[in-house]
Write a structure and sequence with these properties.
The complex is a heterotrimer.
Chain A (H helix, E strand, L loop, with lengths): L1 E8 L4 H14 L3 E6 L9 E9 L14 E4 L20 E2 L2 E2 L16 E5 L14 E5 L1 H8 L6 H12 L4 H16 L1 H17 L1 E4 L25 E2 L1 E3 L2 E5 L13 E5 L9 H5 L5 E4 L4 E4 L9 H5 L5 E5 L4
Parallel strand pairs in A: 1-4, 4-7, 7-8
Antiparallel strand pairs in A: 1-3, 2-3, 5-6, 8-9, 11-12, 13-16, 14-15
Chain B lengths: L24 H13 L3 E4 L4 H5 L5 E2 L5 E2 L6 H14 L6 E7 H6 L2 H9 L5 E6 L39 H6 L5 E6 L3 H13 L4 E6 L3 H4 L6 H11 L5 E4 L2 E4 L8 H6 L9 H29 L7
Parallel strand pairs in B: 1-3, 1-4, 4-5, 5-7, 6-7
Antiparallel strand pairs in B: 6-8, 8-9
Helix pairs in contact in B: 1-7, 3-5
Chain C lengths: L1 E4 L1 H11 L4 E4 L6 H12 L6 E4 L3 H13 L4 E5 L1 H16 L5 E6 L24 E4 L3 H16 L7 E6 L8 E4 L3 H7 L16 E3 L5 H33 L7 E4 L6 E5 L3 H14 L4 E6 L1 E3 L3 H7 L5 E6 L9 H9 L7 E5 L9 H17 L6 E3 L9
Parallel strand pairs in C: 2-3, 2-4, 4-5, 5-7, 6-7, 11-12, 11-14, 14-15, 15-16
Antiparallel strand pairs in C: 1-8, 6-13, 10-12
Helix pairs in contact in C: 1-2, 1-5, 3-4, 5-7, 9-10
The chains are: A alpha+beta, B alpha/beta, C alpha/beta.
Chain lengths: 323, 308, 393
C-alpha cells in the first residue's frame, strides 16, 4: 500500500485532487481511497487531503502519519517562501517566529525511499528540506495561471506526481481528472485541468533535494483535562504555545495564503482611506505623517481589493516570488 | 454628526488573522461595524461562516466578549444577553447579534421575529451573502431569483433558483421596531453612519448588510466592492432606512446595468434573456413598492417620534 | 408559610425565593400555570427579575443559556414537546457548564401520547450533560428547586439540572407545601458568583467557540467527572437543607424496609407514594418487601443501588417510558448497577400516557417479584403492567 498526503490551501483543490488520484488508480484496476482532513477551513487556509493506493482492499480508516509521498500544492507550505522575513517584533510573532505559521516540515514521517512532489520554480537540487529525499519540482502556479486563469494547482500537481513516482500513469491521471473534476466542475473545466496535468507531467524535474533543514518546532496548546477551562469559556492569555482566547487570531500568518501582494506608491496616495476601509483583513495601516498607507504583509491574503478601490491607481498587485 | 472614515479607530475590535476567504465581503463588513460599535459590546454569533472564520477554540478574533451556541436562536440568545446586562447594571453595554442570511431569513426567522416583537434592546445584524456559504453554497430564502447554488443547480430542466429573494428588511419593518436599515460594504459612509445610528437608538434595531461572497458567487476576488456598487445601481439591493415607522430611501438606484452585474458572477452566468427579464421585472416592482411605501410612511408618521 | 398548592405554584414560589434574575419560558400543558404564576408575581411587584416571554421553548432555553453564560442566575421550565424542542440546546447548556435550573413537568411526547404523564420527554435527554432528579411530592419539588441551584452552582459540578415532576399528578394536585421564607432561603443559598463564565467587556471571554477535535474529548471527560462528583454534592446539599429547613429528602435515593428485604422495587416519581402504601401492607402480611425511591437519575447512583440490593432475591424496576425493543431506560441503569449479581431483575413498564398506576398494579409487581424470589429466576425480564392483551408474570 502507498500512502499519500496532499498539502494545499483551501480553494486549490487538494481534496478533489486526492479523489482524482484515487480514481486514476482504480482505472488501473487497483484499490484506492481518498479523504479530506474533515476541517472547516476557508479558501486560502492550509488544508490536507489523503489518498491510499493498494492492490487489494484497504482496511484502515485512520489518518496517514507515515506517508510514502507528499504532494505540496503551494510553495509557502514547504517553507520555500518566507513571508515573515523582516517581521521581528510583529504582534503575531514571538522571537521572530510566527506563532501561527503554516510553514511545516512536510517531510515529517515521510518514507525515506518515498518522494516529495513540490510546486516550486526551483530545480530539485536547489530545494532544501529536513530530509534528503527524491523530489519532483514544477512551477505549478504559473501553469495553473496560464491554463486555468487562477492558481488552482491541483491538476498540474497530479501530473507532477505521475512523473515523479510512476505509481500511476499520466493517462490514468487524465481519466481520473475527467471522472472527478468532470462530475463536479463540468467537462470544459475538466479538460482544461487535463491540459494542466499534462503540462505538469512534461515540466516536472525529478532529482534529490538536500536535507538537514530545521523547521521551528510547532508548539500546539494541548492541555490535559485539568488545565482546560470548564465549558470552554476562555479568556485572553499568553502562553508558551502562543496566544489563546479573545484577540488571539493576531498570531495567524494569513499572509502565507497569497499569490499576489500589493505595493503602495506613496507619491500617488491621496490618503482617502478607501483601501483602509475595504481591506477585509485589516492589513492596511494609516500613516498620517506620510499621508499614506502601509501594508501588513503578515496578514495580507492578496485579494487585491485595495488595488481595485484605489481611485488614483496608487496600489499595484505583484506576483509573489520565492526567496 | 455624521461619521467620516477618519473617525474610525485604527485599533481592531475584530482582529486580523481571522480565516475568512481572501476578498470576503462579510469580513469587510464586520470588522468595520465593530469599529463603530466600540469595545463596550457583547457579540453573539450563530452557526455561520463567521462562527468559523472568527476562529476555532482556543483561537478567537473578537477582542470583546463573545458567545455562540447554535444556528437558529440569535434573536433569543441576544434577548437573554441583553436582559442579563440589565440585571448586572451594565446599561452601557450594547448586545449585538451577527448572523448570516440563512440564520436570519430561514432557520432563525422565528427567534428574530420574537425578539423584535418584544422590542428587546439589541442590535441584530444580518450579513447577507445570499446563500448558505458556510456549508458550501446552498440556497437560502435570501438567494435571488435565477442564482445557481448547489441546491438550485443549473440542470437541463431547471436553471438556478426559481423563487425570489425573501425581503427580510420589509418583514422587520412590519414589526414596527425603532430602527431597520439596509446597507452595503460598498458604501462605507452610509454603512458606518447606519451602525452609529443603530448604536444610539434604544430598543430593537435591525441592519442587513449586503456582503458579496467570492466562492459563493463566483467572481474575481478583487471585485467585492465593485459588485456591491453595481447591485445598488441596478436595483438588486436598495439602501433604505426605516426610523420609527418612517421609511427613507438613502440612494436612488439607476435601475440599469442589471446584465453587467449578473455577467460578472458565475452564479448568474447561465441566465437567458427570459430569466433576466423576469428578474428585471421583479426588482422594478420592488422599487415601485418601496417608493410608494416611503411616500406613505412619510405621510403617516411624519413628525411623530413615538409612532411605533 | 404552609399552603395547599400544586407543584407549579410550589416551583414558581421557590424560583422567586432563589432570587433568580432571568427567566425565559413558554407555556405548555401541564406546565402553563408556572409561567402564569411567575408573571403574576412580577406584575404584583413581589418578584424582581427579567422575564422573557419568548415565542418558543427553543428560544426559552437559548435565552437562559445566554443569560447564564453572562453570569446571571437563570431559570426555565417546560414539558413534553417543549423539552423535545429544547433538545438541541440542552447539549450547549451542558457543554458550556452552565448551572441552569429547569422545571420539567413530565408529559408524554409524540403521537399516540396526550397531555398526561410519561417520562419519554425527559429520559431521552439523559445524555445531554444535565443532572436529572425525579420527585414525589409538591413539597419535594419546592425544596429541590432551592437545592438544585446549590447543587448545580457548586464548583465541583457546574452543570445544568432538571427537576422532573409528574404532570397533573403533581402539577394539578394541590397538597400542603411549606413555602420557604426569603430569610431562610438567603441563609441557605448564597448569591450566584459567576467564576468561569460571564460576559463582561472589562474582562472579555469567548464562550462557546466552535471546538475542534483536539479538545472535545477532554471537555466531555470533564463533564463526565463533574457528573460523578455531583453524587457527593447532592448528598451534602440535602444534609445542609435538612439542617436548615428540617426536611430530609435523603439525597440520591430513599429506602423503605430494604434492610431485610427479599424483594425490592425501585421507583421514580409519584408511583413511589402508592408503593409506600403497598409495601406497608405486604409487611403486615409478613412479606419481606422493600422499596427504593430513586431520586437522581443523572448521575445514576449505581453503587448505592448495588449496595442496597445486594441481599435481595429479586429486584424490580418501575419504568414510565420505553426504549423500544429493549425495555425501560431505568431498567437498563439497574441492570448495569447489578452487573455482577445473579439476582433476577424485572422491568415493569406501566403508567404510559398518564395511565393510572393504582395499588393493584403495584401489588401485581410485587407478586411477580415474590414469585421470582421463590424460583430464583424471572419468567420474563420485561413486564408490561396493566396492558390489555398482555399477561403479567
Amino acid at each position: 500500500m502507498k500512502e499519500i498526503i496532499l498539502h494545499g490551501r483551501g480553494g486549490q483543490g487538494a481534496v478533489l485532487a486526492a479523489q482524482a488520484l484515487a480514481s486514476a488508480a482504480v482505472f488501473e484496476d487497483k484499490y484506492a481511497m481518498a479523504f479530506p482532513h474533515f476541517g472547516a477551513e476557508r479558501r486560502g487556509a492550509p488544508v490536507a487531503a489523503f489518498a491510499r493506493i493498494a492492490e487489494g482492499r484497504i482496511l484502515t480508516k485512520a489518518h496517514i502519519y507515515k506517508p510514502d509521498y507528499v504532494i505540496v500544492l503551494d510553495p509557502w507550505l514547504a517553507g520555500l517562501v518566507d513571508v515573515a522575513k523582516g517581521m521581528e517584533g510583529h504582534e503575531g510573532t514571538s522571537g521572530g517566529v510566527p506563532m501561527g505559521s503554516v510553514k511545516t516540515d512536510i517531510c515529517q514521517g515521510l518514507n525515506k525511499k518515498g518522494a516529495a512532489v513540490l510546486n516550486t520554480a526551483r530545480p530539485p537540487d536547489e530545494v532544501r528540506l529536513s530530509l534528503e529525499v527524491c523530489v519532483g519540482t514544477v512551477d505549478a502556479t504559473t501553469i495553473a495561471l496560464e491554463t486555468l486563469g487562477h492558481p488552482a494547482t491541483n491538476s498540474c500537481m497530479l501530473g507532477a506526481f505521475a512523473k515523479t513516482t510512476e505509481e500511476v500513469s499520466i493517462g490514468s491521471i487524465e481519466k481520473g481528472i475527467m471522472d472527478v473534476f468532470g462530475e463536479r466542475l463540468g467537462e470544459g473545466i475538466a479538460e482544461r485541468n487535463v491540459k494542466a496535468a499534462k503540462l505538469g507531467f512534461e515540466r516536472t524535474e525529478v532529482g534529490m533535494c538536500s536535507g538537514g533543514r530545521e523547521f521551528p518546532a510547532q508548539k500546539k496548546w494541548l492541555p490535559d483535562v485539568d488545565e482546560l477551562p470548564p465549558g470552554c469559556a476562555i479568556r485572553s492569555q499568553d502562553t508558551e504555545y502562543g496566544k489563546l482566547g479573545p484577540g488571539s487570531t493576531v498570531q495567524n500568518e494569513t499572509g502565507s495564503w497569497r499569490t499576489f501582494h500589493p505595493i503602495v506608491d506613496d507619491e500617488k496616495c491621496t490618503y482617502c482611506m478607501l483601501c483602509w476601509f475595504h481591506c477585509p483583513d485589516g492589513c492596511i495601516g494609516r500613516v498620517p505623517d506620510k499621508e499614506s498607507v502601509s501594508v501588513d504583509y503578515f496578514y495580507c491574503k492578496g485579494c487585491g481589493i485595495c488595488s481595485e478601490v484605489c481611485p488614483v491607481d496608487a496600489i499595484t498587485m505583484v506576483r509573489e516570488v520565492e526567496g | 454628526m455624521r461619521l467620516k472614515l477618519k473617525d474610525l479607530p485604527e485599533e481592531n475590535i475584530f482582529s486580523s488573522g481571522h480565516t475568512a476567504c481572501a476578498g470576503c465581503g462579510a469580513a469587510m463588513a464586520i470588522r468595520n461595524i465593530a469599529k463603530v460599535l466600540g469595545k463596550e459590546i457583547i457579540i453573539y454569533v450563530p452557526a455561520s461562516c463567521l462562527s468559523v472564520f472568527n476562529g476555532l477554540f482556543p483561537s478567537c478574533a473578537w477582542t470583546v466578549p463573545y458567545h455562540h451556541t447554535v444556528f437558529e436562536n440569535t434573536g433569543a440568545a441576544i434577548s437573554g444577553l441583553s436582559r442579563a446586562m440589565k440585571r448586572k447594571g451594565l446599561d452601557n453595554v450594547t448586545v449585538v447579534g451577527i448572523a448570516g442570511d440563512g440564520g436570519t431569513a430561514d432557520i432563525g426567522l422565528q427567534a428574530l421575529s420574537g425578539a423584535a416583537e418584544r422590542n428587546e434592546d439589541v442590535i441584530y445584524i444580518c450579513y447577507d451573502n445570499e446563500a448558505y456559504m458556510n456549508t458550501g453554497v446552498q440556497r437560502s430564502g435570501s438567494t435571488p431569483h435565477g442564482a445557481s447554488t448547489t441546491t438550485t443547480p443549473v440542470g437541463k430542466l431547471m436553471k438556478g433558483k426559481q423563487d425570489f429573494k425573501k425581503d427580510v428588511p420589509l418583514i422587520m419593518m412590519a414589526h414596527s421596531v425603532p430602527y431597520v436599515a439596509t446597507a452595503s460594504v460598498s458604501f462605507p459612509l452610509d454603512l458606518i453612519n447606519k451602525v452609529k445610528k443603530a448604536k444610539e437608538t434604544k430598543g430593537f434595531r435591525y441592519l442587513q448588510v449586503y456582503a458579496p461572497c467570492v466562492p459563493g458567487w463566483g467572481y474575481e476576488q478583487s471585485k467585492t466592492v465593485e459588485l456591491g456598487k453595481l447591485a445598488v445601481e441596478c436595483g438588486m439591493w436598495f439602501l433604505l432606512e426605516c426610523e420609527n415607522g418612517q421609511l427613507k430611501i438613502n440612494r436612488e438606484p439607476k435601475m440599469k446595468n442589471l446584465e453587467t452585474y449578473l455577467k460578472m458572477q458565475g452564479r448568474f452566468r447561465h441566465m437567458d434573456e427570459k430569466q433576466i427579464a423576469e428578474l428585471q421585472e421583479s426588482i422594478e416592482r420592488k422599487w415601485e413598492f418601496y417608493k410608494g411605501y416611503a411616500d406613505l410612511t412619510q405621510r403617516l408618521y411624519s413628525g411623530s417620534e413615538a409612532s411605533v | 408559610m404552609r399552603r395547599v398548592v400544586g407543584s407549579n405554584y410550589a416551583t414558581s414560589h421557590a424560583v422567586m425565593r432563589a432570587r433568580v434574575e432571568v427567566i425565559a419560558a413558554y407555556p405548555i400543558t401541564p406546565q402553563t400555570q408556572m409561567v402564569e404564576h411567575i408573571a403574576k408575581f412580577i406584575n404584583d411587584g413581589i418578584m424582581d427579575c427579567e422575564y422573557i416571554n419568548v415565542e418558543s421553548e427553543h428560544s426559552a432555553i437559548s435565552a437562559v443559556i445566554a443569560s447564564q453564560a453572562a453570569g446571571v442566575r437563570s431559570f426555565t421550565s417546560t414539558a413534553s414537546q417543549g423539552l423535545a424542542l429544547m433538545h438541541e440546546l440542552l447539549f450547549s447548556a451542558g457543554g458550556l457548564r452552565l448551572p441552569i435550573v429547569m422545571g420539567v413537568v413530565n408529559r408524554s411526547v409524540g403521537s399516540t401520547g396526550g397531555i398526561w404523564v410519561e417520562y419519554n420527554d425527559s429520559m431521552p435527554q439523559r445524555d445531554c450533560g444535565w443532572l436529572q432528579m425525579y420527585v414525589e411530592t409538591n413539597q419535594e419539588v419546592h425544596d429541590m428547586i432551592l437545592q438544585a441551584y446549590k447543587i448545580a452552582e457548586d464548583k465541583r459540578v457546574l452543570l445544568p439540572i432538571m427537576i422532573c415532576s409528574d404532570g397533573f399528578i403533581l402539577s394539578h394536585t394541590v397538597e400542603p407545601v411549606e413555602l420557604a421564607e426569603q430569610e431562610e432561603v438567603d441563609g441557605f443559598l448564597p448569591k450566584y458568583e459567576a467564576r468561569h463564565s460571564y460576559l463582561d467587556p472589562k474582562d472579555p471571554i469567548a464562550s462557546g467557540i466552535v471546538t475542534p477535535r483536539e479538545y472535545r474529548q477532554e471537555f466531555a471527560y470533564q463533564i463526565h467527572r463533574a457528573m460523578l462528583e455531583a453524587k457527593d454534592v447532592i448528598g451534602e446539599v440535602n444534609r445542609d437543607f435538612a439542617d436548615k429547613f428540617g426536611r430530609d429528602h435523603s439525597g440520591l435515593i430513599e429506602t423503605e424496609f430494604v434492610e431485610d428485604a427479599e424483594v425490592i422495587l425501585l421507583t421514580l416519581g409519584t408511583v413511589t407514594s402508592t408503593a409506600r402504601g403497598v409495601v406497608r401492607e405486604l409487611r403486615k402480611k409478613g412479606k419481606k418487601a422493600g422499596l427504593v425511591k430513586v431520586r437522581a437519575f443523572r448521575p445514576y447512583p449505581a453503587e448505592r443501588i448495588a449496595e442496597v440490593c445486594k441481599d435481595a432475591r429479586a429486584v424490580g424496576v418501575y419504568d414510565r417510558s420505553v426504549s423500544f425493543g429493549v425495555g425501560g431506560p431505568h431498567y437498563l441503569e439497574v441492570r448495569n448497577a447489578l452487573f455482577d449479581s445473579d439476582v433476577p431483575v424485572i422491568d415493569f413498564i406501566g403508567g404510559l400516557g398518564g395511565r393510572d398506576v393504582a395499588e393493584a398494579d403495584v401489588r401485581s409487581m410485587y407478586d411477580v417479584l415474590l414469585e421470582a424470589a421463590k424460583t430464583g429466576k424471572a419468567k420474563r425480564n420485561i413486564e408490561w403492567v396493566n396492558t390489555r392483551g398482555v399477561v403479567l408474570g
